């Protein structure tokens, strides 16, 4: 009992991690830059890391929105890392690449990051044909410099990263299982008694909810969602990235998506955008506490639910708050307008924009739906533009147009393989 009290007094059992992911620096919402919102988030994050006495920052992929990010997005990333190191000398920082990131681009500054004590694993590293555990495994230290945990930092796994596994099951899933299994086993050999085992991944897990308008289905499609038993019971915490809605996986307290810090599509406006403050208790999980990220700009929809006739829409728009002279551009709400029309209205945008003159809200999406199709108004849903459809949806729609028989699963899998190759070609 005395030893336990002394250990607790010295802070032996507890350490704090902050889990975040899916920043998507460089993102635009209908051609509107999110640079100011990201800057506000990074400012808040830096303050939070210090205020909460965080020992390690875990960033689980999709630092950038594209594999070829703008100079401004890259500058924001490097500037944040520099500020962290200047202000928080002892903070461990571990970063993995996501499916939106270029693995090569993230890994290129490794000599500089290593000198700063920052571990970035953009792509799956190998040394002489085998997994490079020296890069995949990262010790985490408390404020006194003691190792309290080991992180298995596995980046987004592309199909070409996976070993050829002889199995009667799904080859891709079993290949992922082997990569995580070997990495975690190597971490077990390194960690000592009292040190926790932590995993990081950028993937789509079964039992998780996907935001279709801004998240690609990865690893070969929705049918390749990974099982939660990828992380055995001795993994105290699994810090995941890819899904923008913060959530537990399969009800497991220690297997979590932190979600994106800002809404990345209009459909994500109702999400609780947050980071996760994780406390490790020795080798196990103590607590997980969500910290809400302040919303810089709200997202509005007029009408709030189903589309209504143009006259009603214009009345609701006229009632929106006026633009205050001192309101910064980054604080102006984004606005989606949905209108029910009996026929095409050539002057629709002009009429809507005229009413919005002098209003705080900025129009980013105008969606008409038409009632002259034989459907009741309640059954009519606003249309989805091509840019909001996933490649899989477009492929299925084209197939359904040209062929009567159902699509064979093998054809869909081949499409996903080709899609992945095209998406990764930019990396």
UniProtKB/TrEMBL annotation:
Pfam families: Metallophos (PF00149), SbcD_C (PF12320). The keyword Hydrolase applies. CDD domains: MPP_Mre11_N (cd00840). GO terms for molecular function: 3'-5' exonuclease activity; endonuclease activity. Keywords: DNA recombination, DNA replication, Endonuclease, Exonuclease, Hydrolase, Nuclease. Residues 297-402 form the Nuclease SbcCD subunit D C-terminal domain. GO terms for biological process: DNA recombination; DNA replication. Transmembrane segments: none annotated. The keyword Amino-acid biosynthesis does not apply. InterPro entries: Calcineurin-like_PHP, DNA_Repair-Maintenance_Comp, Metallo-depent_PP-like, Mre11_N, SbcD, SbcD_C. It comes from the Bacteria. Residues 15-245 form the Calcineurin-like phosphoesterase domain. Heterodimer of SbcC and SbcD. SbcCD cleaves DNA hairpin structures. These structures can inhibit DNA replication and are intermediates in certain DNA recombination reactions. The complex acts as a 3'->5' double strand exonuclease that can open hairpins. It also has a 5' single-strand endonuclease activity. Belongs to the SbcD family. PANTHER family: COMPONENT OF ATP-DEPENDENT DSDNA EXONUCLEASE, NUCLEASE SBCCD SUBUNIT D. This is Nuclease SbcCD subunit D. It comes from Hyalangium minutum.
């Amino acid at each position: 009992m005395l030893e336990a009290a002394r250990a607790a007094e010295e802070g032996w059992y507890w350490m704090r991690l902050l889990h975040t992911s899916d920043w998507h620096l460089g993102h635009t919402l209908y051609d509107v830059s999110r640079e100011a919102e990201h800057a506000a988030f990074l400012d808040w994050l830096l303050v939070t890391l210090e205020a909460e006495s965080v020992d390690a920052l875990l960033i689980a992929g999709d630092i950038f929105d594209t594999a070829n990010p703008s100079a401004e997005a890259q500058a924001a990333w490097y500037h944040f890392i520099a500020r962290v190191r200047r202000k928080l000398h002892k903070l461990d920082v571990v970063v993995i690449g996501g499916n939106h990131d270029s693995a090569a681009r993230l890994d290129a500054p490794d000599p500089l990051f290593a000198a700063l004590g920052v571990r970035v694993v953009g792509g799956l590293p190998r040394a002489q044909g085998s997994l490079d555990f020296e890069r995949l495994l990262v010790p985490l230290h408390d404020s006194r410099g003691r190792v309290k945990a080991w992180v298995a930092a596995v980046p987004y796994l592309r199909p070409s990263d996976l070993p050829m596994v002889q199995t009667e099951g799904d080859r891709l899933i079993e290949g992922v299982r082997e990569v995580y299994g070997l990495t975690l086993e190597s971490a077990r050999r390194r960690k000592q008694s009292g040190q926790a085992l932590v995993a990081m991944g950028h993937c789509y897990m079964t039992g998780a909810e996907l935001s279709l308008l801004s998240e690609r289905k990865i690893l070969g499609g929705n049918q390749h969602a990974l099982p939660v038993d990828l992380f055995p019971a001795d993994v105290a915490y699994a810090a995941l990235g890819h899904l923008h809605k913060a959530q537990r996986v399969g009800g497991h307290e220690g297997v979590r998506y932190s979600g994106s810090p800002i809404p990345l599509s209009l459909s994500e406006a109702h999400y609780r955008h947050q980071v996760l403050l994780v406390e490790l208790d020795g080798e196990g999980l103590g607590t997980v506490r969500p910290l809400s990220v302040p919303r810089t700009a709200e997202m509005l929809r007029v009408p709030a639910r189903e589309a209504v006739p143009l006259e009603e829409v214009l009345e609701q728009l006229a009632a929106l708050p006026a633009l205050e002279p001192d309101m910064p551009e980054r604080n102006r709400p984004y606005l989606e307008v949905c209108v029910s029309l009996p026929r095409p209205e050539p002057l629709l945008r002009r009429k809507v924009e005229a009413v919005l003159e002098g209003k705080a809200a900025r129009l980013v999406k105008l969606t008409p739906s038409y009632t002259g199709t034989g459907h009741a108004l309640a059954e009519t849903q606003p249309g989805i533009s091509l840019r909001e459809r996933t490649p899989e949806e477009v492929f299925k729609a084209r197939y359904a147009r040209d062929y009567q028989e159902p699509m064979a699963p093998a054809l869909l899998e081949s499409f996903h393989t080709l899609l992945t190759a095209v998406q990764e070609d930019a990396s």
